[in-house]
Structures are given as structure tokens and as C-alpha cells.
Amino acid sequence: MNPTGEGGSVRLDHFYDKLSSLAYGGDYNPEQWGPETHAEDMELMREAGVNLVTLGIFAWATTEPTPGAYDFTWLDAHMDRLAAAGVAVCLATMTASPPPWLARLHPETLPVMEDGTRLHPGSRQHWCPSSPVYRRYAVRLTERLATRYAHHPALALWHIGNEYGCHISRHCHCEVSAAAFRTWLRERYGTVDALNEAWSTTFWSQRYSTWEEIHTPRAAPSFRNPAQRADYWRFSSDELLAAYLAEKEVVSRITPHIPVTTNFVPIAKTLDLFRWAPHLDVISYDSYPDPHDPDAAQRTAFSYDVMRGLRDGQPWLLLEQAPSAVNWRPHNGRKPPGRMRLDTWQAVAHGADAALFFQWRQSRGGAEKFHSAMVPHAGRETRVFREVTELGAELAAHPALLRSTPARAEAALLLDWPAWWALETDAHPSRVDYLDGALAYHKALYDASVPCDVVPLDGNLSAYRLLLVPHLYAVSQEAAARLTEYVRDGGTLVMSYFSGITDEHDRVHLGGYPGPFRELLGLTVEEFDPRADGTWAEEIRLEGAEQVVAYDWGGPAVTRHAYGDGTAWYVGLDPDPKTMRELLDRVRAEAGVGPAAEGLPDGVRVRTRVTEAGERIRVRLDHRDGSVAVERAAPAVPRAAPGALRR
Ligand code: GAL
After folding, report:
1. Residue 411 CA neighbour count, 13 Å, CB half
2. pLDDT of 346 over the 60 cut
3. Which residues are catalytic?
4. 516 CA to middle of ligand 1, Å?
5. Locate the Beta-galactosidase trimerisation domain: which residues (predicted)?
């Protein structure tokens, strides 16, 4: 899965060699400040136990103030100062926000919305992902940076771009993007006829006669072609990946010994992260739970489980979180005392090897001046900085956690971006939200203290006793066969409604829903019948499955089907959280999947990491009072391999 192979792990050694305990620090933006502040920064970083900063993320305009005229003197000074202070640097390629001169010289690099509006500079990320001009300038700067700092003692890790797809997710509809989309489609389909077939273009007279007629799905009078839209999402993710890879190619060539990452945004529809993950040496993630959200802990746990799953359980880096409030929600509650610590330990418990913040020092001006930072406007004599300092010392006291392996779960949830994209196109029987579905299934395990991994369709499914499959709406015959095989070989699978409906081109699997899963599930869905209040319902005909739960108005709603050596459950509605919990408790009991620890009170979660020496370290998070305990755990009780327990 990892094209970086062995080299990737050697490169990672370079990163880990610079750390003696979990990475701790934040985005450091010294270009916003003067020399006196810089001196104080070093003092406060020492006090806080900072050992890693991300540097230069928005420093393109400072470093290349006019085209081709580079000024690295300021950065040299910071790199040297940080190295002297023992702080490693995750150095950004600075390409997330081009300087205004790029738009002046090349307005064609600016992204265009689906209605034709061109976006302008003045915030950030104002670049067309397909623009060869943007890429040329970005690569040129990356080359300079990589050459200059290749052997700098502070350089630990490359930080390519920043949060790809955060602001320009449904990215660009300019002519350059349209041409790139056509090239991408040619590679996928070969001929216009094959595309017509895949996109079902005979419907509504959309049949194309040449490639030139095909565009990105721009604003149109009614529902746009769903296959075109799903392909556009695929293309968008791939195109941003290509922009990332253009810079990665440079740093890999000039500094083959330095590992590479980029920070992913909070779980979003934007990028197919399973396609991205092989191209990062280590996964990085930015997490911004809302302190006002009562479900924040579970939602956050889910996103951390996704990050851990992207590279099959490899530890990942929490590259950004807020020490207290953010400033981009309508109401930005602070993190109360202790919450930053709890949130940080939650990330570590779920496999993070780093806890970094946005940002080190709170900005004086600009759009994020009210976003909290490790050093607040009021300086060191503050509650936030005191907690930052205490947390730095606490993390440093657990060096064995660094690079320890998060324990593998017995249950997994299947996540699939292409199915997500196709599911959320228009004109369906009812609105079905993919992420809500995934979160609801994850919650039933989380509430029962059952660890859950996240896997892709082509992942290592047989490692799990239980596989949850929310809304796998679009699925190829081959992928469906993998799931069937998983159950036949003894796995327990729970599939939610509106799965297996269309193929990878959003064409319905004929012969009764859910085509490729009918035999596995032992049923046929005759008709969808969502209720006026939006509740999902459908008419299910049993063909071997047994009814477990009925709809209020009668007819099977939840079914169970013994298949091969395993069991396939089907859930034809959105159970309320209590019913969902009861259902999954029963499924788990049958599948032999237990909680992380017996008898945990509500609100208490534990996760285990295993050190290289085989020591088990347990992190106990108490979400009721915010307390955290990190303790040695007893050796694991040997358990039979999943297959051995199967009938
Ligand atoms: C992230 C971004 C940071 C900062 C932060 C504020 O999405 O990468 O640069 O804007 O949000 O919450």
C-alpha cells in the first residue's frame, strides 16, 4: 500500500530521532513579530517544553516578496535559533497562500466557482488546483527551500501546502480545470462513447459527440448528471493530490532523507484520504472539536480512528488543535480548564505521536486574532499558558509512548469516499447523510467502550470480527464480492440501508435492490418509502434472512442472515441511539467483540498502546470530570484469532 516502502520508514526515523518524547508545539509564525518577541519565544518554548514547530506555512509573500527575488535571511535566523534551542522544525513549503503578485501577473491562477465567479486574493488558498502556472511557482519556491535547508539540523519533516481542499474543495471550473478534467476522463474512459455509457447520457439528451463539449459540472438549470458530479469529486481529489505530489517530488529528490506530510482537515467529503495516504510518510490531522458540542468526544474519536486507519494503524500526528477557542464558528466557546489536556490525551490514546496547536503566539492582527494560541495576547501570566506548560511537562514524562503502536481493534467501520460522493448527489428517495450514518454506527461502539478501526474497501478486512458498513450506496461488483467473501469466511457484517444500489458509475444494479448484496443479506428491497418527516423506510422481502426488528407499521426493518461461516445484518432504518446501541450490543455479543475494559462507567474511555518493548500503556480518559490517567496495563489476555471463533 505504501509506495514509499522501506524508504518511508527510514525517513521517519529521521523525524523520530529528533524527538525524545511525543512531539509538542505549534504553528510558529515569527514573521508576524519583531526581534524582542523572537527572543521571548525561545524562552517560553523552553518553559512550555516545545520540541517541534511547524514553520513558514503562510510565509510565501515574506520569502518571495517580488517574483523570483527570494529572502531567506529571516528564515535562516529562525531555523538556527530553533536548532540551538533543541526545537525541531516541520518546515512548510509555504505554498498554501500565494502572494498577491501571482494574481496580478497571472489572474488565470485564481479559482472559478461553479457559477463562473472568479475568487480573488485577500484571504488564502486562492489558487486553481489544475493551474500549471501556480504549480510552476510553487515548485520553484519548494526547490529553493529544499536546497537551502536540506542539511539544516532543525529540519525534521516537510509540511507540504496546508489543508488541501479546505477552502477550494469543489475546486475550480475555469477553462484550465475543464481541460484537466477532460484529460482525467480520457484516462478513465478512453473514448467519448465509453464516457457516454458510464454517465448514462442518453437520459435528458446529454450525449456528447466530442471531448470538447464536456465541462466540469458548472451551474445548470436543474439536477446535474450525477455520474459527472461523482467523477468531478474524484477528479478534484486527484487534482489536489497532483498539486501535492508536484511539491513532494521536489523535496523527495533534493532531500530523500526527510519524511513528508501534509495536514488533513477535519473529516470532510473533500479528499479521498485513502488515495492520499500512501503518498505521506506520516498522516497529519487538524482537529477542532466544538467545546459546546455534547457529542464532540465521540465525533473526535471517530476522526482519530480514521487517521489511524489511513495507514493501517500507524501512529499519526495531531498537527493542529486549538488551546482554547477558535474564531470561525458563530459562537466560539473557550475550552474550560483541563479540556485542552483531555483533548490532547484523547488524540494520544487514539494513536497520535504529536500534539501541536494552531498557533504558538496569538496574532495581533489579521483574520485569526481572536483564535486562541499557546501564548495568548495577555502573555505568559495566563491560565492557558500555565496549562500549556503543565501539559508539555506531562507529555515529556511518558517517552515510551512515542512511536508505540495503537492496539488493533476487533471491530472496524468501512469508509469509502466515492460511495459518499455518489450518495450525496441530487434526486434520491430522501436525503441520506453519509457522515451522519458513519458517526451513528461508530457511536454505538464508542458508547459501549468498544474500540473501532476504520478501513477502506480494499483493506485488511479479515483482521476484524465485526465490520460495520454504513450507506455503501455505490459499489462495484468486485468490491461487493470482497464483503461477501468476508462474511462467507466467518466475519460478521452490519450493513445499513441504501447500500449496494449503484455501480461505480452510479448506474443501478438491476434485478432488485441491493443487487450485489441480496444473496449475502438474504433479502430484496422492493421499494423505498421514506416518511414525510424524513424517516427512512422501505419494503423488504425476506429471502432467507430472519426479521429481528419490524417497522412501527409492520414489515421487516432489521434482519439477520447466516451466510457461509458468518452473519450479515441489514438495517433498513436509522435506529434511535438507544435502539442502535441495543442492536450492536447483540451483534457484538454474537461476534465475540468486547469492550476495551469491563465495567467502565459512562463517560470513561480507555485505549491501549503497545511499546516496542511490548509494554502496554493504557490511557484512561474521564470525560465527566476531565481527568486523565496514563498507566501500565496488564499484558493482554491471549484471544483466539477472529477466524477461530467463527462458526
Ligand atoms: C486551520 C488552518 C490554520 C488556522 C486554523 C484555525 O484550518 O490550517 O491555518 O486557520 O484552522 O482554526
Report:
1. 31
2. yes
3. 163, 320
4. 42
5. 409-593
